Structure prediction request, 335 residues.
Amino acid sequence: MEPYVAGRLAVGAVALACLAHAASVGVKTLRYFRLRSSAEGQLALERYAELGATTAKVGAVALAVALPSSALTADRLAPSLRGAMCGWGVVHADRWGSASMTSTVLAALLGLVVLQLHALDRRTRGLALVRPLASLALLGALVAAVDLALAWRWLAGLDFSVVASCCSSGVDEAGGAARFAEPGPRALVAALALALGGATIALGGLLSRRPSRGLARGAGVLALLALPALLTAIALVVAPHVYEVPHHRCPYCLLRADAWFLGYGLFGAALVGVGSALALGLASLIAPADEPDVVGAFARAGGARTAAALGVALSLGALPVVRYLALSGGASLGP
Prediction:
């Protein structure tokens, strides 16, 4: 087994083991926990819930780490798979690769949300978040199990004796490549990503100054809309301008040295910003109403983090476009 494959599966196994334990604690919490009870058994359950929260946080970190681990695995295995010039060939060498990467992105988002909600729970003086976090642990265990299963099907199914396809056959020469590479659609995608990303940044900045549950929910909804727009813009706008080829729409190539490893910072900042906004939205629904100071402090920190992370993502995405325009004298990247 390749070391990167073993590492990726080990990360998934740690996430599943920790979140499975947290889920087992969560089941008992949902069945027996009573917020206003002070019985001896209830106090023991509270201590047990604290242990479950610790394992849930470790599992959430593992879920977040699984995404760069999958990306690094795909990139580093490319030279071992004939015909695979980048991570695209490794991911699409098996029919489970795309499903695995998608599930890992969603799992990483969930991990970021879980970590921030547990940070809110540490700040609260009461136990109002015990039951919501127990429910979230059950969801986390399910997501971790699905993600590990898909990662196993993908990585264990790789055949290093065959010739894989590179991104030029899967993206560059795809049926609709010319249509998407035209300036009009590309400008529309860029404008949508800038509008949704900018609106989320604005709400995050406003939350950092004037926290409110309504603004937090708005930031969460905008982040959900902004995520697909940002990922699409990375493929259709950023990647072609990095390589100065209108049909080169491969996001995996952005993880390579000749692309300045731009993909790691770009994808990472976007996911951190979206995850922070989603945590704000969920917190506005489950946070205790009798602790406005704690909730306000969480919203201010989360809003600032959302604005900063998405600001970095948009800046990194704009950098190759500005560079190309400067070098070309303002000429558009035509088909």
